[in-house]
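User: Batch of two.

Assistant: Item 1 of 2:
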Amino acid sequence: MSAVSPYRLRPLLHISLLLTLSSSPLFISPSWAETAGRRSYEVPAGSLGAALTRFAGLAGVNLSVDPALVRGRNSTGLSGNFEVEEGFALLLQGSGLQLVAVGEQAYTLIPAPDGSSLQLAPTSILGANDSTDGQSYPGGQVARRGSQGLLGARDFMETPFSQTTYTSETVKNLQARTLGDLVASDPSVRATNPAGGRYEQFTIRGFSLFNSDVSYNGLYGILPTYTIDMEMAERVDILKGPSQLINGISPRGSVGGGINVVPKRATDKPITEFTTSYASNNQIGAAVDVGRRFGEEDKFGIRFNGVKQSGDTEWDHQSVDREMAVLGLDFRGERLRLSTDIGHTERNTDAPQERVQIGANAKVPNPNDVRHNYAQAWSKARTEDTFGAVNGEYDVSDSVMLYGGVGARKSDHDFLRHAVSITNNAGDFSVQPRDFTRDENVRTATAGVRNWFQTGPVSHEVNLAASYFYMDFENGGARYAAAPSNLFNPVDTPTPGTPTRTDAKVYTENRFSGVALSDTLGFFEDRLLLTLGARWQRVKVDDWTDGVKGDTSYDEEKVSPSGGLLFKATDRLSLYVNYMEGLSQGKIAPSTSVNEDEIFPPFISRQVEVGAKYDLGSFALTAAAFRIKQPAYETNATSRVFGPNGKRENNGVELSVFGEPREGFRLLGGVMYIDSELTHTVNGAFDGNRAPATPKYNVNLGAEWDVPNVRGLTLTGRGLYSSSQYLDQANSKEIDSWERFDVGARYAFKVEQKDVTVRASVENVLDKRYWSSAGASDDSEPGLTLATPRTYLLSATIGF
């Protein structure tokens, strides 16, 4: 037998192996178990028997159960800080069973005398897992728990990060059709592309976030590249700050934060809902949502969501036709939980709007003078995405869980578009048609082990995970003869005919791999939680142009450390601090630059954040102060060469509110302040300037009021504000501040024992015209985004 060649492990793998072998209860028996006082627990949803067994193991107590009592019963799990009997009571809520002590640290179950489980005082369920949609906070708009990839799902009060998780109820009540409609509720997030454009794009804390960087149940690259429909979402997690430790490197390297879409699952209660919708000018749609559980103990679940919507929008000669179908299947056993999701979306947009680029000799135009769609009637955007994912969890024991997921996507995109780059104050621009195609293939996977154990008075949650992401895409197309048009008085130009130039075919392969290790240590009965972790990441990018290997490919790796400390000063107040570091894929030169498609090396981003969270039971306040640093990029105004130019530092403060401060009155919103400064620019030309497309203030506040004495009637309102923004690094061009107001109402009632909800709202009720964004501060294609005119939304949902 030949000698085995040595295999050089990465430094992080050495550390992870040593720590796992030396501390895991798989190899040693714990000498201590915490049996008294409040501490942190994480029990996933599943069968009641499995949930009780895990909780008893974590608490270090004995539980004897007659299998017949728990057979066929399920639990929504729990996450938070509890005493032993409090935790058992929460798991048993609604089960008809009751906990009985039979000795020191020993319990059994009996049927409750009145058929219900032990009830708790209202003040004792602050960390309860009280619903299947992520434990909705009072008011139902925000969930208590959010997904945090490597670290699992956690209660917001036990998270050393800034995160907001929106529920499917919020999606419905906002009548959110796309992700862009939903994130308008968050002051840290802004859309940077027109609502009637080819694709959606956002900023979080002033940095770009592309749809490619939105994860699906923790897996990157699965969701559609250009627009994400919201009817598929059970929850939407928005995490602020670099998230590479949690989910690994994202495809486009977003550093301001991350968004995760949690798919819908069948609930214990059957779901059959049909929704009809209308959006002005003439958008008519219908959606179905069907969910059932079946089989022994309802172990199997199926959930289907389908949408069809089409018609004209508020803009001239613009129409949108979209279709979505997503099927979710799941299995929940005693120790094994599996799920799979399969989806297909299609979106056809005629005359999609583009950002308006401003030439060196043109001033920022007055948005009140832009009254017509400046996109040509023949322009179009056709996107088609098919995707799927499989996820699983297996409880090896009460303290060890294996988990993993795989996913894939295939997409075909076809655009016939033209840029809008005005050259003078009169608003003249040249319409140069471009046929652009893009085909994408994605394969991604993650696998890990999570281990809970005690070492003396210190609790541990160790996570070891590996991830892999692969994406290839091919860009191609052609150019056509140019024709003149005008921003204020658009000119109909001929439909493109014979191409004047064929673009080179650019083929690119991205491979990202990584291994991450973290440990959350709990001190003083888990009142002090310290999370330490690191992720080794490798970024490999190769590209070819017309079959010729490019010279900008790279293969780089780095170990990125991160950490967080959370202190529960009281049961209602949590204080935290974190440091997060991440490696991001390098920028790609845009089509508006002379070095189009050039790939730049990866870069490192760093964040420091301190914050506080105050939970009043029905109303919560959070505050965070942060600093994020990363390289700055620009397209030179004279040479039109895209590349790095200095560094940028965003220092900011966020305040957010959510919940129901008074019965029947709900609030959701907050404010973000950012001081964004450029440094180390070429020859110091722009040092001290504000980074482009970064307003100092974003303010959002939404309110809902249940009208007294009119059961089921709710009035809604929302206000959004952003301060002025610069368009360029020189700070020579600026857009004004803007505000938008939305109003609405909904009425819930019954017809022949069927639940009916009618919703009506008006977005931009004052019909204000403004530039909503100057692009994205670290984006390769700056430009102005024109706000959507007044839009009417109407829908009716009936539950059978």
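Item 2 of 2:
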Amino acid sequence: MTSNNAYSAERGDTKDPRASTDSTSFKSTLCHQVSGVIIFAIGLVIGIIIGVYAIKPMNDAQCSNSMATAASVPAMLTTPKPVQHPSNKTSIPSCPADKRPTRSNKPEDKGLFELLSEDEMNAVKMFLKAQGHVSITDGTPTLKDSYIYGISLYAPYKSQALNHLDKGGPNPGRYADVHVHRGNRAVPDLMEYRVGPLGGAMTAQAMYRDGELPYNSRPRDGIEWDGITEQVSLAMATLRPMLQASFDGAFFPNGGLIFHPQAPPSLQANERATRFVLALLVDGTARGRDLNFLPLTGTVHNPGVNKNTWYTHSFYYLDQGPFPTAQALLSAYNNGTLRKIALPKGYRQTLFSATYPKQNNDRRRESSDKAPPRSYYPAGPRYTIHDHTVKWMDWEFVVAGSQFRGPSIYDARFKGERIVYENSLNEVTLAYASDVTSGANTVYMDATFGVGEFQSIILGVDCPSHATLLDATWFDSYSQSPITAKAICIFETAGEHSLWRRKDKFAAGMANNYLVVRFALPVGNYDYSIDFRFFLDGSLKTDASASGYLQSSFWDPENPRAGQDKATDAFGYRVGQYAHGAIHDHTFGFKVDMDILGTKNNFEVIKWKAGDVLGALNTQANVSEKPPYFLYDETRYVEWETLATESGLKINMINPEFWTVTSENKNKWGVKRGYRIHPETLAAQVLTDRHPSMKATSYTKYHCVVTKQNDAERFLSGTYDLNRLADPMVSIDNYINNEPITNTDLVTWVVVGFLHIPTSEDVPMTVGPTTGFSLKPWNYFDTTSTFDMPQYLDTKDRSFMQRPPQPTTCVEQKTNDCYFCN
């Protein structure tokens, strides 16, 4: 990495040859000396300009940087070989261009796991129309239509996939997972179809019985939103005098107010009631409202497809209520029986500066106007991509994803051996707590809200400018058309620390360069970032972080339930003039299906223990007497347990454990080869099973669940479970049903997260807290696996000297860093 000023010293060495002549030709008189100084100064300026343009022969507006690249040094030398710098009199060459991936939209050219293309989605839509499964023809659907909510890849059944990949069996083909809202039926319902094979003679297989998926458990979309808006508008027209008096003249619609629907809509699958909260609209933002919730809430009764039967009820003002109608609330407000609030006049004019994330020009940091360090490819990228299949440094894998579940990778192999069959985000759950009607009962399961409705990467923010961008496509229900975004970035990065090092009679080490596959996922007010990182030693790391706007609660300065301290309450801190940071959690659930040297694996728990010496020794053999070399009778030791049946595991720092997936195959030293699962999380579920959400989100009780692989157990939550919490389709507890799991195909469901008590530093933007897990070789190799790479090595006698490839100078090519530009 380097800055724009990295080679200022090199540029300073550039001189105009006339300068010496000019400064020594006129020494005879004072007049000549003065003239010489003037001429010298002019010549020096011209020389500097020529030197600068020799090194940087590009227009300043082009935003290119002078960088250093590498000439490879032989693996073993007796003396160092000097790096040759190019002459300043010639233009420095451009760094090698990023090789764009080759792609094909033909289904027959795609692999089993790659994301569906626009062409494939359009073909599926036309097929379902022709078969009568979809009734919408043109324009925006209505609730009374049968329309497509979303389309994603239906991952192949694992046994068929492995038979094809490993044994040369028939290709199982590519299939689409299509979710249809069937509002045109006599009894409206939902249906999921498995459509395919794509590119062949397609069929549509219904995955549920008619009526099995109640219509009122559907995910909310823009079509329903329009109907909810109509009901909120009617109520707010009645309440307009109260709104303007309370909220600095604002009203709804088109008067500075907006509404925000909340979740869940009900606990039962056959019910539907959408709670909403009013918020102040912030110019230039769609979700700045989340920091500016107001103390006015209500509920829209909105089951079924007939919007004429919908109505509003259960209104609260400053947590006073419920009032059955908007008129009843207005009457109570007017007759003086309510405690009131009035925002200061002009308060709305302060929202932009407090909410919009632009630099404060009055408080610029010193040197912040200088370009920061950046990385680049001095010799071009060291990875290759075909469609969504990536190869890098003995790694090969497929980048995949689902509109309904989010990012994933498939068929990840290291040195030709499959390590991970599937690593897929499945669910993100948030449960809020706050002493306001808008936040007291809020639960989100983000798979319901389009965690895979991909948007384009912000190049230079999410990923470095040299990253390769890949397409991800999802299907928009409102327009009934696919949408493609540059939503995936891939890049190799310098970890800027050692993968390993040793200072001894020699100096040796290896830089920790690794490959990143990153998805940035805006979901509502939050922006998630999901990383899959691949390391030179065979490790994989999955990271998840959250940023964006807080979903705040209204801070009531006169709350009669608050204590003496007006800065905190039982649910968090005050974080703004009228903003409260409601406590919540973010729990990420991943499906991690490892195949260690095949599918016959065991799950081994290694327990880190302490106790007496005989207790330790007797875990391995029958020992009756403590050996004398143990000077005291307390020691540490480890104890191995192979899980016999499906289990749910929790991290307990008082009783540490190592969780490993192992094979019966052994390394050179007779030890079973395996990989360790290492969660990096501080999250712990403190809600009891009595909480209404816990049956549907039971996965949040664990940090790892181990089950026998089953094609029917696709996800750790049900697609519609947020809208039917009392009777979910899936509960991870039901997966733990005592099936034997020794020497068989295992799936681990890895759960990580963080507990979020928002503070003032989360306003206006949360600086992404991060969680994740690593998969690390565990006796998988006979020795450290990186010694087939160039190392850094020096010995005092210079008998050995080794270097990784070193850079020579090149100019980084210009990239477009404008998000909204073509």
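The chain has three domains: 107-211, 222-355, 383-802.
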